[in-house]
Design goal:
Largest sheet: 6 strands, mixed
Bound molecules: adenosine-5'-diphosphate
Number of helices: 11
CATH superfamily of the largest domain: P-loop containing nucleotide triphosphate hydrolases
Order of helices and strands: EEEHEEHEHHHEHEHEEHHEEHEEHE
Helix content: 25-40%
CATH architecture of the largest domain: 3-Layer(aba) Sandwich
Radius of gyration: 23 Å
Number of strands: 15
């Protein structure tokens, strides 16, 4: 199911004043993929997801599911529509008094599903999330990762046509994050599900999403394919996210950007795909009368391709430096210069 947002606005008023948490968001979220929405704390992510998932109505603007307007549904229609929306959260929101299986059964009971159907569906969902032997376990005995698996199973038990993941891995350690993201990717592909993933972690976007929108101050400041955003970040917010990216979530590898000097580093060079194999830097110093000093470097592994990053200084006469930069760009390297 695809989602279209047109000029969404939402202002909250409290004793301390009013704040426009969502300030004119227009987005197209294509179907059958994992779409990321990233932003810092307070950027408006949760407010936006409450509007998109029809938990709240916008002050202005509209929400369309498959080109049908859904932000103005009647109460009865809204209940029906919401039954096809799955959600998972950072704190799992499971009933601690119920077993794993009873949690998964809960939304089906609400919809008055026949008990034989519930039994089969719960077994199927437990298998899907790899916990077929934990159905009778009380929720309190499960690890964080297992709780999130049960929450995913519960969200999918209603056979939703969209799944919202609101900071779903933020409470998990890196290794568990990695396994949960892998599970969501597997399920997305198997069920051709549309998934909207809200996060403040660029690692989550890199490891799970195909497209992403970057939210700041209630507005979308950048959007596109994750590979494009990683190789050509435009907004300052995106660049900031990328400069703080840490080791691949949960992979037992060294941090992907190693910095051996906090000083300097005027130029960020990004080597995408085939450019990662070329000895460009040694050619650069042979061809031009410049010197370069590497301050940080590493490789980002995206699902579709690798992006190499070098943070360097390049010194020499102005004209030579200019020619060297032009040569880098001609060689397919993306060059960003610190202002
Ligand atoms: P994020 O999820 O990106 O951290 P939020 O959507 O939670 O951001 O919040 C965006 C801004 O809106 C914040 O300044 C927050 O305090 C404010 N806000 C969100 N929900 C409410 C609410 N129900 N009442 C008052 N202010 C709110």
């Amino acid at each position: 199911m695809n989602i279209t947002l047109e000029n969404l606005k939402k202002t909250y008023t409290s004793s301390t004043g009013s704040i426009t948490a969502v300030n004119g968001v227009s987005l197209k979220i294509p179907e059958n993929m994992i779409f990321g929405i990233i932003g810092k704390s307070g950027a408006g992510k949760s407010s936006l997801v409450r509007l998109v998932s029809l938990l709240e109505t916008p002050d202005e603007g509209s929400v369309f599911y498959n080109d049908v307007r859904v932000d103005n549904l009647s109460k009865a229609e809204l209940i029906q529509r919401r039954r096809k929306i799955g959600m998972i959260f950072q704190n799992f929101n499971l009933f601690s008094s119920r077993t794993a299986a009873q949690n998964i059964a809960y939304p089906l009971e609400i919809c008055k599903t026949r008990s034989s159907v519930i039994k089969d569906r719960v077994a199927e969902m437990l298998k899907l999330v790899g916990l077929e032997d934990r159905g009778s376990a009380p929720v309190s005995t499960l690890s964080g990762g297992q709780k999130q698996r049960i929450a995913i199973a519960r969200a999918l038990a209603i056979q939703p046509d969209i799944l919202f993941c609101d900071e779903a891995t933020s409470a998990l350690d890196p290794q568990t994050t990695h396994s949960i993201l892998n599970l969501i990717r597997e399920i997305q592909a198997k069920m051709s599900l549309s998934v909207v993933m809200i996060t403040h972690q660029m690692e989550v976007v890199r490891d799970a999403c195909e497209q992403v929108a970057v939210l700041d101050n209630g507005k979308v400041v950048e959007q596109g394919l994750v590979t494009d955003i990683f190789s050509h970040p435009k907004s300052e917010v995106t660049k900031d996210f990328l400069s703080h990216i840490s080791a691949d979530a949960g992979r037992q590898e060294k941090p992907s950007l190693l910095r051996w000097s906090e000083d300097g580093g005027k130029y960020t060079l990004r080597f995408v795909g085939s450019a990662t194999g070329e000895p460009v830097m040694s050619r650069l110093s042979k061809k031009f009368d410049i010197e370069y000093n590497i301050r940080a470097g590493g490789i980002q592994h995206l699902p579709s391709e690798d992006i190499g990053t070098l943070i360097t200084d390049i010194s020499g006469e102005e004209g030579e430096v200019k020619k060297a930069l032009a040569y880098l760009k001609e060689s397919g390297i993306i060059v960003e210069e610190d202002a």
